[in-house]
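Incident log, structure service

09:12 report received: a user says their structure output differs between two submissions of the same chain.
09:20 pulled the input from the user's history:
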Amino acid sequence: MFKNLMLYRLSPEWPASAAQWEAAIANEPFAECSATQQKSTGWVPPRGDEHGALVETVDGQWIARFAIETKAVPGDAVRRKVEEAVQHIEKTTGRKPGKKELRDLRDDALISLLPQAFPRRSTVTVWIEPTQRWLVMDVGAQGKADEVITSLVRVAGKGFGVGLLQTASSPQAAMAAWLADAEGDALPHAFNIERECELKGSGDEPAVVKFTRHPLQTDEVRQHIAEGKLPTKLALGWAGRVGFMLTQALQLKKIAFQEGVFEEGAKSKDDDRFDADVALSTGELSGLITDLIDALGGEADPTAVSDQAPAAAPASATERRALATAGADDDGPPF
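09:34 re-ran on a clean worker, output below:
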């Protein structure tokens, strides 16, 4: 169910319950792109049922799903359409279009071609761990995470605050220490180093060294660390149950549950498969995230998130603007 994770910390005020979360996101249900619409976003039932609940509660965990649909027109098709229009103008009027008219022609060409474009849809599973106040997204691209955060800001209103989860030690510093430790004592016992990592130097044109299917607890790797190269990602295993790639931005990628972890879910009936998958995956990942935070020195300040003061600076301009909107809205969501 989860392949990549981005970790956020929610403020204590919102949502107070799964029902409150569902009532809020019901204001932005997903609708397919119209004929001339390039992008549409919104919330869909996580079970896949057409008229199902927008938030599911399974084993105490809250699950929702956000959909992003885009329609792209090939640039070459737009250029050909514009060239045809330019040739027609030159032939009928004897003049060449100016810059503003060319921009208008490009817009007109795009709009005329959009109905022929095929939509592409992706979804983001969003998980709230209510006891820890974690907001966890199954997403590998920051842009998609920004879309989810922006939607939540629009519908949540006063009381909503979110920030990237911050640890006392940076993931990069910790990964470097684990790789540099010849005795293997620096890495917490719940984790083991696997056979893939990327090391990056400093400077305008930094050297990059990648290891794939290669032992990492070697003098060669330690020498790279001693020379100043730092890990940007490192493959780890947790408790013999989950494998993943940890990045310097505290993202978990390439999550893979080990054989046998999902045997109970595989035996479930189709109607219960969603519940079993959610219960098993969130149960395992909750333990992994807890141990990972501990391995990185604990959270820097888990109480700092509020609608006025997010715990951490957002990772992009989109998220910064979204959080500023949340802090400024004292009258509730702009429906």
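09:41 both user submissions now match this output. Likely a transient worker issue. Closing.
09:42 reviewer note: The first strand starts at residue 6 and ends at 10. The CA atoms of residues 10 and 162 lie 5 Å apart.
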